[in-house]
Amino acid sequence: MSEIEHPQRGFLILLKFGERQHLSEFREKGLLYLNPLSYFSSLESDSARADPFEGTTTIIQPQHIAEFKFSSCIGECTASPSDFVGPIRMSLNRIASCNLYCMFAVTKPIEGELVDKRNFEFGDSFVLVLNTQEFMSRVSLAAQKAGLSGRYGLVEYYDRGERSGEIGPFHKPSTFAYQNEFRIVLRPGSGEPIQLMVGSLLDITSDV
């Protein structure tokens, strides 16, 4: 995995929200449960996790194109921007099947409320990672032992009604910006959940 990129001159604090039982396993065993990107795009009733744009690799806004032309073995057809009800999204299986672990990132000193209350939709408790660099070193080692590779970093938020071009696992619509997300993305993905055992994190995390 790549070296961690420290935003804001190295200031990076990570929090994990969730249910108390799951966070206790996170601390005691270093258990990271990573769902594939496709899992989040298929959710419907979970406002904090459901995102139909997850796994998308390219967005094309109809207003940014003069005309669409589609070719296939049975012929060609054209369409004007007004024929589409929303942006065109394209996805590759190798991206949609990647597995990810999500955390809340604090990248600068904050006065007042630390996190948006909507983050507690993930669970009623949280754990603070006290040593981010050591945490990521342990995750990297566990991933390598499991035959996995990947990247980690901050999520970039975009306007899904205006953005056209390539996106990836580190991009999300701006409606989720309150989550201040930091992601660990592992490959190759199988399209199924992965349980990564990092080992005890009691020495580098706060109490639940």
Question: Could you characterize the architecture of this molecule?
Answer:
The protein is 18% helix and 33% strand. It contains five helices and 14 strands. The chain has helices spanning 7-10, 20-29, 37-42, 93-96, 132-145, and strands at residues 13-18, 31-36, 56-60, 68-72, 75-79, 88-91, 99-106, 125-129, 149-154, 156-158, 165-166, 171-173, 181-187, 194-197. It is globular. The relative contact order is 0.28.
Describe, in short, the structure shown.
The protein is of the alpha+beta class and 208 residues long. The protein contains five helices and 14 strands. The longest helix is centred in the middle third of the chain and has 14 residues, at 132-145.
Mean pLDDT over all positions: 84
User: Ends: how far apart?
Assistant: 28 Å
Number of helices: 5
Which value, in Å, is the CA radius of gyration?
Answer: 19 Å
Shape, please? globular
Profile the largest sheet. Answer: 7 strands, antiparallel
Helical proportion, percent range: 10-25%
The total strand number stands at 14
**Proportion of residues in β-strands:** 25-35%
Structural class: alpha+beta
- Unreliable segments (pLDDT under 50, ≥5 consecutive)? 2-9
Q: Order of helices and strands, N to C?
A: HEHEHEEEEHEEHEEEEEE
